[in-house]
């Protein structure tokens, strides 16, 4: 039930038809007696800068979830951003500070790292390879750096994109050993597919499976299918792995903490979500 005291969490993006967050957050809020609601709000890019500022003038606004195509443009509209958001170059959560300032953070990478840790894989001191330096790859790189990886290798078909991420990592994590260039998975403890490869039938694999060790942990970000061709191949080699939707569910407890709501576990959210 939405009342005059309900805290509004706007889910901002365009278009809204594929939004899943309300189907996860709202059942959780209802079950736990939290007087808040996530509301999808479709905002076209040309209207977004003005709309975001006006949205946070509402007396009952509490925060916003930010999705495509607004994650990058949000950065210039904030008063304060986390290091994760600065390294990622994008933002997917905004809350109103007590002084009226807009505070932004990025949780895609946090969700990925939380999932890896919960599966028992050590991140601190690890050597990690990320294939794909776009939005989600940059977010994962930021969170792996924050979690203490020793070496981070970045590969992207677009050299400019990869180099830009390299520069941001060196700026905010000057002690981190970070390189750009190869997608060769040999010798890495953690390998991440942060490319779209695996979404469409017939996509090539993002890495050379023959060069990956059975002890390597492999993470996927593709959401359209649980076991992608990459995960099917590394499972056959004996690798532990993480499916794309794990990143989605694992980041929600971090969002709840950011919005100062009672938090929970990814397993609990999976159990109560009404995704159909």
Descriptive account of the structure:
The chain has 276 residues and is an alpha/beta fold. It is 34% helix and 20% strand. It is built from nine helices and twelve strands. The protein has helices at 21-31, 48-55, 83-88, 108-118, 135-147, 159-172, 229-236, 244-258, 266-272, and strands spanning 7-13, 36-42, 61-66, 80-81, 93-96, 102-105, 127-131, 151-155, 177-180, 190-193, 217-220, 241-242. Strands 2-1-3-5-6-4 form a six-stranded mixed sheet. Helix 6 links the parallel strand 8 (151-155) and strand 9. Helix 4 crosses helix 5 (135-147) and helix 8 packs across helix 9. The radius of gyration is 19 Å and the shape is globular. The model has no long low-confidence stretch (mean pLDDT 95).
């Amino acid at each position: 039930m939405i009342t005059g005291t309900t805290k509004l969490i706007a889910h901002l993006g365009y278009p809204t038809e594929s939004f899943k967050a309300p189907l996860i957050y709202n059942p959780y809020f209802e079950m736990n007696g939290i007087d808040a609601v996530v509301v999808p709000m479709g905002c076209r890019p040309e209207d977004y800068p003005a709309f975001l500022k006006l949205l946070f003038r509402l007396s009952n606004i509490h925060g916003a979830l930010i999705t495509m195509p607004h994650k990058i443009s949000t950065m210039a509209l904030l008063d304060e951003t986390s290091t994760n958001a600065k390294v990622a170059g994008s933002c997917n959560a905004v809350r109103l500070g007590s002084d009226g300032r807009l505070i932004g953070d990025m949780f895609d990478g946090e969700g990925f790292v939380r999932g890896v840790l919960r599966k028992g894989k050590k991140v601190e001191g690890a050597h990690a390879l990320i294939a794909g330096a776009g939005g989600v790859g940059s977010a994962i790189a930021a969170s792996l750096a924050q979690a203490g990886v020793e070496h981070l290798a970045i590969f992207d078909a677009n050299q400019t994109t990869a180099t830009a991420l390299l520069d941001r990592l060196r700026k905010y994590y000057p002690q981190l050993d970070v390189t750009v260039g190869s997608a060769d998975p040999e010798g890495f403890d953690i390998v991440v597919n942060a490319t779209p490869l695996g979404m469409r039938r017939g996509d090539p694999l993002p890495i050379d499976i023959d060069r990956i060790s059975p002890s390597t942990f492999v993470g996927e970000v593709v959401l359209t299918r649980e076991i992608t061709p990459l995960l099917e191949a590394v499972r056959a080699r004996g690798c532990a792995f993480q499916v794309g939707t794990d990143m989605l569910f694992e980041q929600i407890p971090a969002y709840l903490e950011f919005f100062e709501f009672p938090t929970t576990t990814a397993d609990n959210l999976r159990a109560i979500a009404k995704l159909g």
